[in-house]
Amino acid sequence: MTSLITSRARHVAVIGLGAAGLVAVRELRREGHTVIGFEREKHVGGLWVYTDRVELDSLSLDPDRTIVHSSIYQSLRTNLPRESMGYSDFPFVTRSGEGDPRRYPDHREVLMYLQDFAKEFKIEEMIRFDTEVLCVESTPENNRKWRVQFKSLNGVSGEEIFDAVVVCNGHFTEPRLAHIPGIDSWPGKQIHSHNYRIPDLFKDQVVIVIGSQASGNDISKDIATIAKEVHISSKAVASDSYGGYDNLRIHPTIYRAREDGSVVFRNGKVVFADAIVHCSGYKYHFPFLKTNGYVTVEDNRVGPLYKHVFPPALAPGISFIGLPFMGLQFFMFEIQSKWVASVLSGRVKLPTEDKMMEEAIAFYTKLEDLGIPKRYTHFLTDPRGNPMLGTFEPEDAVVISQSDYFNWIAKQCGCTSIERWRERLYNVAIKKIFFSGDSYRDQWDDDQLIEEVYGEFAKLKSNQDCSS
Ligand code: FAD
């Protein structure tokens, strides 16, 4: 592996070593920076490190609770084909003779892929495990430097000064709850999907699952294998329908919950339920970041940010990798990381603070003009028919498609943008979610496309062999 020696090598902290932090560390080092990664857990992988543990507070409302990072459930399989998910030069292919060979593998397989990546690029040597970052703030004596305060699991605290901090702490740990009138006196059990692992708790019960996006969809089917009835509350439907299982129905959103244990849906249907599972998403949360108000989170908009990455007033010292949701996440982490690394070395220039601010404000104004709530600011996916989008027509909800976004960044930092095959694979996969129902993970018809993809992987391998 070659490192680019630049005239402006920076000392950079990366917070969090999930899929975003891992590739950020690699790209920063490739650009010649010195990097230290801080990881609260014992392992790399972030969200993909499955644990049976859940938080004691099943709705995760207590700000002082002990946090369990991962939100994945035992039965989770990827919602995209593995070949589309990998980083550009490290394909996510089947491991010979071990693991889960399926095109949509289980969560263990994704973790193994990330561990392999960390090993291949010797990333662990730059990580401080069991070390939580408690505070990031600019140093009083020099507001272009950043003080990172941390505490390790064995109680040792410390601080260190960095030229830049790259925030990769993930955004699927802090639950977001739907507002339900009357819920405080509703007597049933409530949990957020962050604390859902297995369906056993719901045996023979009547369960309401709020939300019909990826997790709501999976979890309701998981619970339906054991529960008496499952009722999904979805923004995407106006009246009741069946959900492909005898004991599963889909309803519109909830109108109110009542003291007698009943829940009234917006179309007047009433269900007496034992439990509610909130699959209503997550909040961006940066408890360690002290920016004097230069970065705020308002209705799940992290802002103001230039292209979802740089806060104009603090750039390039502070940057965020991985805020946009939906779409090709690992690829996005990689391309955003390349951009951050090249800006920090001075190889690529950012516009002035004023220009970045103007751009951010113009973007927010455009969203507002389209009637798109702030919480969709970081929604980034292909506009053509994303079935996971509930409340808006897809054309209205997306101001820029993910490929436009990737192409724009690639142009800034002179790197290769999204491969044509990856775009096509993603588009096929999204259509399958829409049209193939529950079997979308297990029926793959487009063998020719897969053949092409493996042809591209073979070319990549032979180029890598030649240059090593
Ligand atoms: P994370 O993986 O959450 O990593 C963040 C890391 O930061 C963690 O290791 C955490 O311990 C650490 N950290 C946090 N705070 C601190 C601190 N203060 N100090 C030190 N360390 C800290 N994407 C796909 O591409 N395909 C899928 O099939 C898919 N399925 C998903 C299913 C679910 C249920 C969810 C919630 C998401 C799914 N995603 C999927 C999206 C997923 O977010 C990304 O794939 C990706 O793994 C997120 O990586 P990340 O690095 O941004 O965050």
From TrEMBL:
- Please give one Gene Ontology molecular function term for this protein: NADP binding
The catalytic activity of this protein is classed by the Enzyme Commission as 1.-.-.-
Keywords carried by this UniProt record: FAD, Flavoprotein, Monooxygenase, NADP, Oxidoreductase
**What's this protein's name?**
Flavin-containing monooxygenase
Query: Per the similarity annotation, which family is this?
Result: Belongs to the FMO family.
The coenzyme or cofactor needed here is: FAD
Show the Pfam families listed in the entry: FMO-like
Cite the InterPro entries for this sequence.
Flavin_mOase-like, FMO-like
Superkingdom of origin organism: Eukaryota
